[in-house]
Amino acid sequence: MIRVAEYRHLYEKLTEVTPPKNVMVDEPLRNHTYTRLGGKADFLVTPETYEQVQEIVKLANHQEVKFTLLGNGSNLIVKDGGIRGIVMNLKKLTAIRIDETSIVAQSGARIIDVSREALKEELSGLEFACGIPGSVGGALFMNAGAYGGEIKDVLVSTKVVDRDGELLTLTAEELDLDYRTSNIPDNGYIVLEATFSLEKGEYKAIKAIMDDLTFKRETKQPLEYPSCGSVFKRPPGYFAGKLIQDSDLQGQQIGGAQVSEKHAGFIVNKSEATASEYIDLIHHVQATVKDKFGVTLEREVKIIGEDLN
């Protein structure tokens, strides 16, 4: 844990970089994750400009303080012990700009909202994203996709901050986008904005696709409970949800965490679950499917933070 004197010193340094309203101390991260799980962050900062992002990264480096990027917490489990040091959330970087058939969206914007802006301008290519709950930054981080589309299909370039706090502009090809992966985490990049190239379409046709995908999502996914979305990647030749269902795991519960009765590929926070209960249920599902079918389920959701002492 950070000592009181270090807390005060770091708080003063952070508030020199970004206004005090953007710096929260001992903030419960369950308030900032879709699963409603997670202990406290020593400091949660929500910068409002690219320059503030750069300066916070440089400050963490200079002070030798642990730094973690939270994103919008949609495909993430934060452990019950929380996260030490500085945690950054880019939820205030939400601008979306349209230039003919291109859309430039800041990393904190929801990818759902970007798809809706595309619809307004009769731009086609982001229909698949109309039900993805994550941010633009998170969508690039994991090359998010659904219903046959994925980010790499439409991404042109991105602006990022590297581990040294330097601003870089990268092409989509430089991110090594693949099925639910990119080189963003390995390189420690912080996505600031993304440029997407779309095609002119017809409003009614685009809306019809989006309405159909929204209907499928709302009828098949357990949106009535907090969750991290799809927990596992699709194993080659299989569907994760079908394997879990055929393993008689649907409805199984550890504490307040439950394998969804509506969609077996989801684990929901049904009743004030802890992160450890949620993670234990993930491990139980993996072990059971491996034992019954010999298939290893790889997590799509990211787990960060510390266990409770």
Automatic annotation (TrEMBL):
What InterPro entries does this protein map onto? FAD-bd_PCMH, FAD-bd_PCMH-like_sf, FAD-bd_PCMH_sub1, FAD-bd_PCMH_sub2, MurB, MurB_C, MurB_C_sf, Oxid_FAD_bind_N
Q: Which GO terms describe its molecular function?
A: UDP-N-acetylmuramate dehydrogenase activity
Q: In which pathway does it act?
A: Cell wall biogenesis; peptidoglycan biosynthesis
Q: Reaction catalysed by this chain? A: UDP-N-acetyl-alpha-D-muramate + NADP(+) = UDP-N-acetyl-3-O-(1-carboxyvinyl)-alpha-D-glucosamine + NADPH + H(+)
* Localization per Swiss-Prot or TrEMBL: Cytoplasm
List the catalytic residues. 180, 230 (proton donor), 300
Report the Pfam families cross-referenced here: FAD_binding_4, MurB_C
The family line of this record is:
Belongs to the MurB family.
- Name of the protein described by the UniProt record: UDP-N-acetylenolpyruvoylglucosamine reductase
Organism of origin:
Virgibacillus halodenitrificans (Bacillus halodenitrificans)
